[in-house]
């Protein structure tokens, strides 16, 4: 057969499709939905990882991905992470997540967000969205005009509002539990703490740390974010790349994922990593062990950043802010229990949290099968 340009491109796209399904198989997703609307320029991907515990719940991220493959990888990892986060938080929700490809500062329009809402509605409640990086409660309001399966709507609209303060509160609880384990006291007074990312969650977390008397170092890619936080709190601002070299007790990743890797881990001088960012370990198999080997206590991200999803989940059962904070407060005890399990079973802290989540999913799957 003569190889023409056309047959070559069919072969290329076939190879891409094979590897795409390979990725989906690797992460064990139930369903991945590609949403494309030329009229509004919408390009989005919805990952539904596992619905054993209930409808998949997880936010939508808008990000200027360098490649489409990067967006696919992000949505697969994030939605899988939500399965374990929701399970370990005791929620009756499976894991899902969506990404919109584009610049969150310039690429949004009412039409694009509403079109995205229509795609979510077409899934009939199998996936419930909320906000994540690059999305605001205002954006969710537009999405919610087209679907009832959007949470994190503004409080004035009967929603639960911005989940970030509850996420920050839960992360603070997890960090205090990690401090108790690593330093013998959960007080953060006088502790040197670096925070990467002064966004919605990072800025609220910084508020808790400063109130407790911690010495806080902060970085962000955007100067305007740093200016806002520096006006509110006595912090030291550092350049993005300097954050890994600081002489601190605790490092709190609150930006994007993958910041615990072969390059950064040898630079870290902290005894604890506890932050809100999703997927902090670039490689879950390697880098949780690498933390332990370097004497760094890693508080699993999906365990301690669950406050936000707890908050939005409540929107469907009757929202109560006080109850949301009470639920997020439990992250302190759960974190200590996970550290104990890791020690008892001779595994790293990430594996211990995964085991707790997987055990719950397995038990519920068996329960469902018996009914
Ligand atoms: P955000 O977009 O408000 O803030 C993220 C900040 O990180 C931005 O200001 C951005 O400029 C900065 N940033 C990005 N890359 C950086 C880098 N390399 N160095 C320094 N700064 C960098 O997002 P957010 O809602 O605060 O979420 C932060 C993290 O927490 C994300 O990983 C998100 O998935 C996770 N998370 C958020 C919630 C929530 O309730 N918002 C819940 C759970 C997990």
Automatic annotation (TrEMBL):
MF-aspect GO terms: nucleotide binding; oxidoreductase activity, acting on the CH-NH2 group of donors, NAD or NADP as acceptor
Entry superkingdom: Bacteria
Classification via InterPro entries: Aminoacid_DH-like_N_sf, Glu/Leu/Phe/Val/Trp_DH, Glu/Leu/Phe/Val/Trp_DH_C, Glu/Leu/Phe/Val/Trp_DH_dimer, Glu/Leu/Phe/Val_DH_AS, Glu/Phe/Leu/Val/Trp_DH_bac/arc, NAD(P)-bd_dom_sf
Q: Where does NAD(+) bind?
A: 197-202
- Domain Glutamate/phenylalanine/leucine/valine/L-tryptophan dehydrogenase C-terminal, chain residue ranges per copy: 161-369
Q: Does the keyword Ribonucleoprotein apply?
A: no
Spell out the coiled coil positions from the record: none
Q: Which GO terms describe its biological process?
A: amino acid metabolic process
Q: Which residues form the active site?
A: 97 (proton donor/acceptor)
Q: Which SUPFAM superfamilies does UniProt cross-reference here?
A: Aminoacid dehydrogenase-like, N-terminal domain, NAD(P)-binding Rossmann-fold domains
**What keywords were assigned to this record?**
NAD, Nucleotide-binding, Oxidoreductase
Q: In the UniProt record, does the keyword NAD occur?
A: yes
Which family does the entry's similarity section mention?
Answer: Belongs to the Glu/Leu/Phe/Val dehydrogenases family.
Task: From the Swiss-Prot or TrEMBL record, give the protein name.
Answer: Leucine dehydrogenase
Instruction: Name its species.
Output: Catalinimonas alkaloidigena
Top-level taxonomy: Bacteria, Pseudomonadati, Bacteroidota, Cytophagia, Cytophagales
């Amino acid at each position: 057969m003569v190889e023409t340009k056309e047959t070559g491109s069919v072969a290329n796209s076939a190879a891409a499709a094979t590897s795409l399904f390979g990725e989906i198989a690797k992460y064990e997703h139930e369903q991945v939905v590609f949403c494309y609307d030329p009229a509004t320029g919408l390009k989005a991907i919805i990952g539904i990882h596992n619905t054993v515990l209930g409808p998949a719940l997880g936010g939508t991220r808008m990000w200027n991905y360098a490649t489409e493959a990067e967006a696919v990888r992000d949505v697969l990892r994030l939605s899988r992470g939500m399965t374990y986060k929701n399970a370990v938080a005791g929620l009756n929700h499976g894991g899902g997540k969506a990404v919109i490809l584009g610049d969150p500062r310039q690429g949004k329009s009412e039409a694009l967000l509403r079109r995205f809402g229509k795609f979510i509605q077409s899934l009939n409640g199998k996936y419930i969205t909320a906000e994540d990086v690059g999305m605001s409660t205002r954006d969710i309001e537009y999405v919610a005009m087209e679907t009832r399966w959007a949470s994190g709507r503004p409080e004035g609209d009967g929603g639960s509002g911005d989940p970030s303060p509850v996420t920050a509160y839960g992360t603070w609880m997890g960090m205090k539990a990690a401090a108790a384990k690593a330093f013998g006291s959960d007080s953060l007074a006088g502790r040197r703490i670096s925070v990467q990312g002064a966004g919605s969650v990072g800025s609220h977390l910084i508020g808790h740390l400063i109130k407790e008397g911690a010495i806080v170092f902060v970085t962000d890619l955007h100067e305007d974010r740093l200016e806002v936080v520096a006006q509110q709190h006595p912090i030291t601002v550092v350049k993005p790349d300097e954050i890994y070299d600081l002489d601190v007790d605790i490092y709190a990743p609150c930006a994007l994922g993958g910041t615990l890797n072969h390059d950064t881990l040898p630079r870290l001088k902290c005894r604890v990593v506890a932050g809100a960012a999703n997927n902090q370990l670039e490689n879950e198999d390697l880098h949780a062990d690498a933390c332990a080997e370097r004497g760094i206590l890693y508080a699993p991200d999906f365990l301690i950043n669950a406050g936000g999803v707890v908050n939005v989940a409540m929107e469907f059962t009757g929202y109560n802010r006080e109850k949301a904070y009470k639920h997020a407060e439990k992250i302190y005890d759960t974190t200590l229990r996970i550290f104990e399990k890791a020690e008892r079973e001779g595994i790293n802290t990430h594996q211990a949290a995964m085991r707790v989540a997987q055990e719950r999913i397995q038990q519920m799957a068996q329960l469902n099968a018996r009914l």
